[in-house]
């Protein structure tokens, strides 16, 4: 009631005509409810009641306000109207109620002037709006629905419209939603918002209601809504069969609003169990006859899911077994095929050292198939004479270069498992120690060149 009386009195005072000595002023309020930084607007009418023309101007006695100065030439009995804008600088004007004196005066006669009071209410931007209530379903919000409607009621506390505002709803149970609105003078506005609850938990939840206009925050308040009890468990089961494999993928999702206690059972045969890989491990395993039951006990919170993965894989163990067989076969093949060669030396000593030496090369075909066209190469160093007494197989070539001799046997054929000994004698004199290098065998296995080297022989004089 007091507010209404003050409002009528305020309008009456602003509407009256003020007479001074030769000047009269009439004020009409355009907008005197403003935010810091906005303009208070008045329409001012000045009448010249003198018998002669006058040059009139004005000033604001409160120097904290900003305005634009103007001059008017007014004939006798005539009026001049202008729009006065008073700006409230953020640095000096704070939210409050201000009575500002407008002085209208003659520039030709200092005794001719008149004062006009101007009332301006400067508000804090956060005081314009008030959150009245937040409404939802009587049973509370239902997370199982595709969308729920939340109604927000906001009060414009003043007789000043608010254009181009935007309401934001923020909460941990849904993504932020917004809507652009306009507020009429002293309007009580209700707006509905559709939200997806994302598996919200049962109970009370805070909702932050924010109203902005540009960068200004007109409202920032907290309300609460109830999420009802709505259990809703969804299950997806996928079975993927491949070459000697089978995969079970089970997903349990809680799309309700309350924690759900779940039990899942999966049957496997004893043979399947031997080749299975399970993630996560079951809570326990039950045996019934030849079958095994894997049992998982778990809780799912709203908005969460539980995954079970079971892989039955016969393929990898089979491939591993085949690989082991191949490796064993290759080892056996490499050990039992090809050519082996050993070198020995028999020596006869004299008083002055070794008189002669008999060298034995023992060649063996380790495989079961015949190997043809073997070439055997042996080499001697520090010998005085060419070797002789070759036994059953003479060399194809004997090359001498200084004290070195190279012996070559070509085109030797060995049937499977055959062993042959090549021997020769050489006169040699050793005072201290001598090393006989290993002999070489060159041949082909399955048209691929191969080389086998024998051991070396050390002789001490």
Brief digest:
The chain is mainly beta and 461 residues long. It is 9% helix and 59% strand.
CATH architecture identity of the largest domain? Sandwich
Strand % is: over 45%
Mean pLDDT: 85
Oligomer: single chain
CATH topology of the largest domain: Immunoglobulin-like
Rg from Cα = 55 Å
Classified by CATH, the class of the largest domain is: Mainly Beta
The spatial strand order of the largest sheet comes to 3-9-8-5-6
What is the count of β-strands?
33
**Tally of discrete structural domains:** 4
* Amino- and carboxy-terminal Cα gap: 136 Å
Largest sheet: 5 strands, mixed
Which regions are unreliable across 5 or more consecutive residues at pLDDT < 50?
1-19
Helix content: under 10%
What are the key terms here?
single chain; 461 residues; mainly beta; Immunoglobulin-like; five-stranded mixed β-sheet; five-stranded antiparallel β-sheet; 3 helices; 59% strand; disordered N terminus
